[in-house]
Amino acid sequence: MRIPEFGRGWRIQTSWLVLVLTLGLALLSCEAKEYNAPPDGQKKDVYIVIFEDMPIVTYNGKITGLRGTAKYFSEKWRKSHKRAHISDLVKKYNEYLIKEQDAILSDFFGFGDCEKTYRYTHLVNGVALPLTADEALRLSEHPKIVRVEKSYKVYKSTVHTPDYLGLPKGMWARSGGPAGAGENMVIGIVDTGIDPTHPSFAARGQKPYGPLRKFRGTCDYAREFPRGSCNGKIIGARFFNAAAKREGSFNATIHFASPLDGDGHGSHTASTAAGNYGVPVVFNGARYGLASGVAPRARVAVYKALYRYIGGSIPDVIAACNQAVADGVDILSLSLGPNAPPGGATSTFLNILDVALLNAVKANVLVVQAAGNGGPFAKTVTSFSPWVLSVAAGQDDRVFRNTLTLGNRGVIRGTGLAPATKGAYLYPLILADDAVAGKGDPALTPSSCQAASLYNRLLVRGKILICTFSFDFVYGGATMQQLAKTVKTLGAAGVAMMVDSDNAGGKYEVIPLSVPFIIFPSSASSNTLLAYYNRYTKKDRKGKIISFGATAKIGNGQTMTYTRSAQQVASFSSRGPNVKDFNFDEADILKPNVMAPGYLIWGAWTPIGTDNPAFTGQRFAMMSGTSMATPHVAGLAAMLKAKYPRWSPAALSSAMVTTADVADRQGRPLQAQGASADSTPFLQAATPFDMGSGALNIQAALNPGLIFEAGHLDYVKFLCSQATPREVLGSTKTACPVRAGMATDLNIPSITFANLVGTKLVPRTVTNVAPVAEKYTITITNARDFVVTANPSVFTIGVGRRNKQAIVFTVRATRASQASSFARITFTGSLGHVVRIPVSVVNKRLR
Q: Where is the Inhibitor I9 domain (predicted)?
């Protein structure tokens, strides 16, 4: 039985749902009157038993098989979404679930009462109770029970990244806990809109959100985005589609002329930046931890300018950014960018979006932008300007391991975020090609398992189906959702997936599945499975199967593993060097600037979302991209600004960039994933073109010691070194100084030369933001191709009027090279502050 999502109307019934949740999680004790102790040697452990009926959070008013009330439920749901009716329906459905749970357990145990540890009706429909291993195995075979799983530790898995970044014991603790992290800050999200019904953005159940005088935004209400959608947490919501309409690409039926998110991407990024704390992530009936935004108390202002399938038109995007700044947002988060350097300007820094963002910075708004997803190839960064904080994506320490145990006691290790096969016994294996009995889509190979009608159902039922992950899944229209549907339709016990090449396996991205599943992304593991299958599967001379002797069971892939390793630059994350024009000529500005987690990030989703078909109909999604890394930085920036409200965008950016990690806990350099011939990424030491200054370290950013300040006039002066005075004046409405200087004069926390010839002087000024004076020593890790020296190399910097120190770095080429080489400058303070800036140089000729 399938009961779809409950619907939007019930979510406003917070008081009733809190009551239901309280009842559903209450500690229960219902011992049997005649209870038989387990046989000697069989201890009882707590198991979670999941029943077939869907829980309250996914209920829509229709209950197949609910005797006497099914028609009542359905009619009431169709006729009214009023609160009283919905509360009544929720109450009745809660009672129904409890009654069904008890009836099934009574049928199984033979008595009416049993000892329960917990009863679940809200997030999942199940119970937790003590069972012997034998009882658990037999209970799992019950037709109305979908899973029986032994209790295990659940770790937060942006479920996991707040812990990974050290927020609970760090920044949150200093902000009064998650209930105060980001208080009174407004993060502007320019994206695909927002789902206002999602619990990540609920205001009820939270400390009340009062009015915020500094914010002047409004909400665009519509039928699908009704009044009440802006609730204090969502403080503003606008949409911009005039350009898309003019181009003929906007379709109100699927794009919605309102702030409603019809894609999913916008809800995901908003929840990562500022989603509520402790929101349960439930997917396909399984719980994957508690989600939280990085700044859970921050407000969200939504500016919808991107639309499903068509992306966004720059006029709409700029209008959105403009409105956001006019409304008074503190941070502007842009998980968007062009596919290539935009034409129409002599410099990438003068493209219209970047100029608009320069004005945002002038208005004291920090702009955080995704670096792009064109990696691991060079010159793929699509965030160009020094006034924008550009974010690379890192892969954190979470892995999704699973195993396939074979009948010969062999074990093949793979991956798969999915449940185990039922019970402890082994199931026969059957290769998809050996199960073909009909005709399917000629565009898809039978091995992709996309059409149930193609296979002999009687032959497949109860077996583990072996399918193949090929480029059909990458480019040919095959999907993992259709694979799961095939498995369910055929009654297969699960699916084990091979790859037809290591290159294809390297393109597999983990997604949660509701059926037992494991994939082997390498040819070696795939060949091991195939060899085992062929050895124990008997065929006649014509190749017809005589008997299936190969057996296996799939392990539980829903338990995630944390390796405690440092981030790696994700292979898809765009790389520098930065480019200054449409011809891809290299710039003297470092991009990206910093790295944050961006691989397989759990975040809010809208059930009507289409950004990724794997999550259609779901409330949460696991996504990868620099889009996912960007709101991590935006959330952290909001907390920094809450602590230091007078800091400029450059100061906020500097604090995060100069304190970033460049090594793991053992002091080894961070690594970057490169192109590889197989599914295992090629790893090499990460350079500033991969990770910018390094991996975000929010604890260090809270107390950076020194910062590098820059303002609007500094950026204009930089532009004057890149374009003619007339072009700069036309774009910025600010005249160039008589002496423009060089791009490397800009006071930013990095030094980049696209073509160093001879010796250059690079001025920098640092500002002490610590409350006391401190002595700093500068050390430099030099490269083979150039040498950097500092004057002074030791200085004491004071507070108040004496809190600035000018330094001149001398960068001298020592040998010619067409490749970039890298150095690092480190400021070590006597009070423990450590400030780092990367140096990137190409010496195409010495003189």
A: 85-155
Give the β-pairing of 366-370 and 331-334.
parallel
pLDDT tens digits, 598-645: 988 889 999 988 767 778 888 998 888 899 999 999 999 999 999 999
Do the bridges between strand 774-781 and strand 820-829 make them parallel or antiparallel, or are there none, so unpaired? antiparallel
List of residues 6+ apart from 422 with CB closer than 8 A: 140, 141, 147, 148, 493, 516
pLDDT beyond 90 at 406:
yes
Q: Is a pLDDT exceeding 70 seen at residue 161?
A: no
Instruction: Give percent of the chain above pLDDT 70.
Output: 81
**Cβ proximity of 48 and 152 under 8 Å:** no
Average pLDDT over residues 126-138: 82
d(CA 593, CA 580): 16
Tokens 């999913």 locate to 264
Determine the number of helices (DSSP H) and then strands (DSSP E) in the chain. Answer: 21, 38
Residues assigned a catalytic role: 191, 265, 627
Three-state secondary structure call for residue 657:
helix
Euclidean distance between CA atoms 614 and 610, whole angstroms? 9
DSSP classification of residue 459: H
Angle between helices 14-24 and 83-109 (to 10 degrees): 10
Mean predicted lDDT score pLDDT of the chain: 82
List, in sequence order, every residue forming a beta bridge with 553; answer none if it has no partner: 405
- Section 547-551 average pLDDT: 90
- CA–chain centroid gap for 775, Å, is 40
> CA-CA distances (angstroms) from residue 40 to 33, 44, 110, 254?
21, 11, 21, 62
**Would you say residue 79 has pLDDT above 60?**
no
From residue 365, give the alpha-carbon distance in Å to each of 13, 326, 633: 37, 10, 14
Closest by Cα among 322, 365, 836, 283 to 638: 365
Domains and CATH numbers, the chain: 9-150 (no CATH), 161-394+564-657+665-701 (3.40.50.200), 401-559 (3.50.30.30), 710-742 (no CATH), 750-842 (2.60.40.2310)
pLDDT in tens, 114-131: 666 656 564 347 776 788
What is the SS3 assignment for 301?
A: strand
| Cα–Cα nearest to 623, from 162, 268, 334 | 268
Query: Strand 234-239 relative to strand 299-304: parallel, antiparallel, unpaired?
Result: parallel
Amino acid at 722: Q
**Distance of alpha carbon 539 from alpha carbon 186, whole angstroms:** 67
Check: CB of residue 710 under 8 Å from CB of residue 747: yes
574 Rama sector, left if φ>0, alpha if ψ -120 to 50, beta otherwise: beta
Name 226's Cβ contacts closer than 8 Å, sequence gap at least 6. Answer: none
Which two tokens mark 675?
């192109």
| C-alpha closest to that of 755 among 845, 678, 821, 653 | 845
Is the link from the previous residue into 143 a cis peptide, with omega within 30 of 0?
no
Q: Is the pLDDT of residue 575 over 90?
A: yes
Closest CA to 422 of 140, 36, 685, 186: 140
Q: How far apart are CA 175 and CA 826, in angstroms?
A: 30
Please calculate the CA angle 742-743-744 and round it to the nearest 5 degrees: 90
Looking up tokens 């970044």, which residue turns up? 165
Q: How far is CA 257 from CA 263, 267, 304, in A?
A: 13, 17, 10
Is residue 617 exposed (0-12), middle (13-18) or buried (19+ Cβ within 10 Å)? middle
Confidence at residue 37, expressed as pLDDT on a 0 to 100 scale:
52
- Kindly report, residue by residue over 10-54, the tens digit of the pLDDT: 322 323 333 232 233 333 333 443 444 555 557 777 676 778 776
Distance CA 425, CA 494 (A): 13
Q: How is residue 627 written in tokens? A: 């889009």
What is the identity of the amino acid at 524?
A
| Burial (0-12, 13-18, 19+ Cβ within 10 Å), 457 | middle
Q: Are 749 and 708 in contact (CB under 8 A)?
A: yes
